Amino acid sequence: MVLSLQSVTQLLSGGTMPVIGLGVYLNDECATACQVALEEGYRMIDSARYYMNESQVGVGVRGSGIPREKIFITSKIYHNDFGYARARECIQESVDQLGLGYYDLYLIHSPLTGKENRIATYRALVEAKKDGLIKKIGVSNYSGKHIDEIIDVGLELPDVDQIELHPFCQQRPIVEYCRAKGITVQAYSPLVTGRMDHDVFRQLAKKHDKDEAQILIRWSLQKGYIPLPKSSRSERIKSNAQVFNFELDDDDMDALDALDQGGKGAVTWNPVEEP
Questions:
Q1: Which of 103, 104, 124, 144 gives the lowest tally of CB atoms within 10 Å of its CB?
Q2: Which residues of the chain have pLDDT under 50?
Q3: Dihedral angle over CA of 61, 128, 135, 57, nearest 10
Q4: CA distance 1 to 62
Q5: Is 51 a catalytic residue?
Q6: Could you report the per-residue pLDDT of 30-42, keeping only the tens digit for each?
Q7: What's the pLDDT at 270?
Q8: What pLDDT sits at residue 57?
Q9: What is the structure's pLDDT at 28?
Q10: Which of 25, 42, 50, 51 is the catalytic position?
């Protein structure tokens, strides 16, 4: 299938999600970045309560002039706020901060604090979905065993699992689990938090007349992931979207796949093994 910036992927519970989004972690004043991205053609923005910029996302969306229903917006609840009652409060606070009526996707940010809290928080998301505050439910940094807990108590499956994904940390067991269940895999830190000075990245960038970031984003797309590259720089936001006019061949993909170091290749917290 030929991909473009307007391409979408089908979600397990119905509906679609764009195939690439703008991440806004460590971008407290992200309204300008959001507006630039939307004007460039992005249609998904990934935020979180922990990022403390949900209101800025709302400002950027309104400033773009693009109708709310054309944009897919995500946030996440952090483990300090887990538990049913607190999660219900936090979801409402998130929606109020955004100022746009609802979130398209709301994630549990991690599996920290144990099974009881995870399930109670997930139940809060299910109820918030029924109330129209969120459209889709997801998780982040979950392994298969954490999702099995959701299945065991009879709750709906998440539409999304957002995990650290790049050539050095390919999380293959989680990806295989999610694919078997129909769960969409989003890739955070697809640019290895800027650590792109590897010979393979440089060689492929030269081969395709692209930069290293574009090679990594294209790899993620061709693997079937939904990459969420982050940047506060307008020129970088724009160039990160210029990944639909070339394709990595099988040898290119094999070279990148061979860089996998498993969990040792993670460059962020990656708490997927949390008990």
A1: 144
A2: none
A3: 10
A4: 33
A5: yes
A6: 999 999 999 999 9
A7: 97
A8: 98
A9: 83
A10: 51
